[in-house]
Amino acid sequence: MAFQWQIDPQDLFVERYPQMVGTGLPQADVDTTRAAITDMWPDAPGGWVHEWSTLARGYAADGRHRLAALAYGWAKFPTLADESKRAALSDQVDQYLLAAPDFGLEFTRLTVEAPYRGMRIDVPAHLLTPPGWSVADPVLLASGGVDSWKIDLHSLFAEMALRTGMRVLAFDIPGTGETPVPMSADSGYGVVRAIIDRARTLGNGRVAHLGVSMGGWFSARSGLAAEVDAAIVLGGPIERAFDPDRTWAYGMRGIIGNALGFDAEPTDVELAQRMSLFTLRQWLDRDWNASMLVLNGADDVHIPVADTLVFEGRRDTQVHLLPDTGHCAITKLPEATRIMVDWLVSTAAW
Predict the structure, then answer these.
(1) Residue 52 sits in which domain range?
(2) Structurally, how many domains does the chain consist of?
(3) CATH number of the domain enclosing 88
(4) With contact defined as beta carbons under 8 Å apart, do 236 and 216 qualify?
(5) N or C terminus: fewer CB in 10 A for the chain?
(6) Alpha-carbon distance 141 to 216, whole Å?
(7) Mean pLDDT of the 17-24 span
(8) pTM as predicted
């Protein structure tokens, strides 16, 4: 189930340009691709997927597989709304696997079996093991959000592994990437719970959970329920982001609708009804949680400031609202990463 919707591709560049160059693509190549794109959906010259895939194929031909994986990641962005996007994801996976020998850490691609509404599904996941790691160490579970997935965020997850010494198990949240079921607050979280259980078998039994953007909803949920030993929420929606009168920026309405499994653009009422199920208020009302770190940029256009500040004053919880940056503090990601690394290596959970 998927759908296309009306969106100006240049609007996506306005928001995502810092992420495109910040995750490793040469600025000149991003600028050239930006200038060539005139439409979002056609798989033809001037189309988003065509131009990004052309860039990726050039990198692949030169043996620059990591850059090819990044470019294919933008080709399939922001969601798998058609066959050309799905093909770009497949090409991204292929290039990522070719790049793996140069990661600087041990890489294993595995699958996690998880329940979903009476079925059993296989969720592909990536295990990043830093030099010097031992079975006496904890594991960090990590995911991105509705449009930036485990391969797209490899540089962040690899850095977290190398700087903390923790093994990282990276996955795509339900409704995205290689996880083959829609996002939901009930069964979707059940999939993540199964991945948490698998993570406990990969180290000393202790698990921290890092969620970026919508992935932060899942890590907030696991942290508030104390189903993990520690949780990091980077730019996660909590409750106010699900208000029925909220506005959607930079194509997020269509992105969320696809992740939720709609096969046509949802109405305001349909989207509001489905999103209302995600509020974490019942968990916030409990005075019981794992050690938690919650952070975001103060100028986020997607997530209300209240969804970060609501954690202030909770037991075993640190809150950071970084000024002069937006969603997930992307323009200050080195600072956000330092905060996350320092917290992980010092938290009493270990």
Answers:
(1) 9-99
(2) 2
(3) 1.20.1440
(4) yes
(5) N
(6) 12
(7) 94
(8) 0.97
Mean of per-residue pLDDT scores for the chain: 96
pLDDT per residue over 267-292, tens digit each? Answer: 989 999 999 999 999 999 999 999 99
Contact 22, 15 (CB under 8 A): no
pLDDT tens sequence across 94-119: 999 999 999 999 999 999 999 999 99
Same domain (yes/no): 206, 232: yes
Q: Could you give the residue ranges of the DSSP H alpha helices within the chain? A: 9-22, 27-36, 48-61, 65-76, 83-99, 154-164, 187-199, 214-224, 252-259, 268-276, 281-284, 306-309, 333-346
- Are the CB atoms for 294 and 319 separated by under 8 Å? yes
SS3 content of the chain, % helix, strand, coil (to 5): 45, 15, 40
Give me the helix-helix angle, 65-76 and 48-61, nearest 10°. 170
195 and 126 Cβ atoms separated by less than 8 Å: no
Q: Is 39 helix (H, G, I), strand (E, B) or coil?
A: strand
Report the relative pairing of strands 119-129 and 167-171 from DSSP bridges. Answer: antiparallel
The answer to whether residue 181 is domain-embedded is yes
Q: Do 159 and 77 meet the contact criterion of CB atoms below 8 Å apart?
A: no
Per-residue buried b or exposed e for 41-52, using 16+ beta carbons within 10 Å of the residue's own CB: bebeeebbbbbb
Output the domain CATH number for residue 268. 3.40.50.1820
